[in-house]
Amino acid sequence: MKNRILFLVLTLVSTFVFSQTDKRLKGIEKQFNAVLESTKAAGFAVAIVEGDKIIYAKGFGYADYENKIPADANTLFAIGSSTKAFTSALLGLHREDDKLTFDDRPRKYIPELEFYNDEMDNTIIIKDLMRHSTGLPRHDASWYYFPSHNKDSLVTKLKYHEPFTGVREHWYYNNFGFLLQGVITERITGKTWEENIETEFFKPLGMDRSKTTIAGMKSSSNAAFGYELDADRNITKMDYYDIAGMSPAGSINSSVNDMTKWLMTWINKGKYNDQQIIPEDYVKEAMSSQMVVAAGFPSKELPDAQFANYGYGWFLHSYKGHYLVEHGGNIDGFSASVALYPSDSLGIVVLTNQNGSPVPRLIRNITADYMLNVDKTEWAKKYKEDLEKSLEVMKEAKDEAETSNVKNTRPSHTKLDYTGTYEEKGYGKFEIEIENDSLFSKLNGKKIFLNHFHYDTFELLEVKNGKVDTTDIGNSVKINFSTNFVGDIDYGRMDIEGLVDPIAFKRTPNTIDVDAKTLEQYVGKYDLMGTEIKAYIKDENVLYVFVPGQPEYALIPTAEHKFNFKTLEGFKIEFLESDDKNINEVKFIQPNGTFVAKRKLEE
């Protein structure tokens, strides 16, 4: 405990020195604290660098809100997508070593890679991955709900990801492009992306506390927990999210003290302590416009925000007449902003343990106003006023809102009929099961309750601490079930990628185990309008049927006396039990009708 107290004292002393050495920052902490109060963030940390010097570094609020452990400049936070600049910079190193060009096709390094169509396969180049110009929408549910630690398994999903536009026709954010950059690095070096980040950046920069995995974060001292605001704006703890194989797009965890070294490197043309960490020509190119993000005139609120472009892992803007290079980050419980003003040799990093937080933007803008000697906007006051208006509008909307569901409707099937395995090759697989007469599923390890919305549409509500979270009723992700020609549920469709049609997960009914003795009761010959049909067992207790002139069909048991054809969609069989409990008839259910065959008497 004594050592802990000493450490805190030293941290406070060093922070005090930073904050008192620059008169430009006089009064800034009042603004910072106002942001902390109005946003109800658990905590945040901010650091400022100018040239090769740290001007300021300090934490506010709490790293651990429940136990009131303060956040400081060494507290680890998840930086989310601020990781992207690290990933693309690795490709800058490979280009410097003549191991690739940005005009190469990614398939040159990942031969098994396939995109949705031939145009994409033959047109997309590495540069498109770096600047979000592949024509793909985000498809984030593909990795967020169905994570994998195997990067190659995530790569195989891209074949099934539908684009919304042509290559290089529009900018659109896509995390898979950064996954591919990470895999290209792995193929070139023979080392993991994580090892490359540590070897090429963390070690030479002395970013000793920074980690590339959530496991590293969990095992570290002075690591922040993530939080969110619930429906009543109470601070609530969130579980860490393991981004797993999608790590090149956003898995780094760092402190503002460590991140100052990364800022200095970019401000100083790729150099840190006279060592060239990143090639100078790459630094200039990465911080220059490679793709237009959005067009339009400056707004009244920000008349000096005159463009919105993208480089390589960096957004590019203007801020009150100053060139701004920035990338945010958001992952469960954490938000970030890493910002450079290269013409002013200024860098600002803000990390917070609040989910989807405005804190990084507000603190960054307040800091920039003080450091750039421009007219100051009262960002804290403006946010508080905007928030109050927003909450009032939300309250009125909630009072007047009517959910869009159609009242007094019922599902078309029994609950059992919706159970089964649902799979979409570009996304993943999940199961729906019955528990206590209700439908449940599991996505990314989280238990999900399927709440009936209307007709054959259900909404997905998370189960937290053993209770269904009802706060999202009417506003949660929905799944709509469809039926095939024979009346079976065949697909569950979720609108989880807004720029393409709902994602269709194909249903496979659950199977049951049937022993050989039970199967024997179905064996025999059946007469179907003069055609003899045989049912027999082979291949280690698999029931088959044979219709003359057709191949034999293996059957999959789905319920008592009920089977699906293994190779024919929309075809099934039900053996009918008579009053004496014997099987004397079999019903063939298929798209063109239902036909009953009677058992033939043994000769």
UniProtKB/TrEMBL annotation:
Limits of the Beta-lactamase-related domain: 32-365
Transmembrane segments annotated in the record for this chain: none
UniProt xrefs under Gene3D superfamilies: 2.40.128.600, DD-peptidase/beta-lactamase superfamily
Xref: Pfam families: Beta-lactamase, DUF3471
Residue ranges that the Swiss-Prot or TrEMBL entry lists as coiled coil: none
InterPro entries (alphabetical): AmpC-like, Beta-lactam-related, Beta-lactam/transpept-like, Peptidase_S12_Pab87-rel_C
SUPFAM superfamilies membership: beta-lactamase/transpeptidase-like
Full protein name: CubicO group peptidase, beta-lactamase class C family
Domain Peptidase S12 Pab87-related C-terminal positions: 406-491
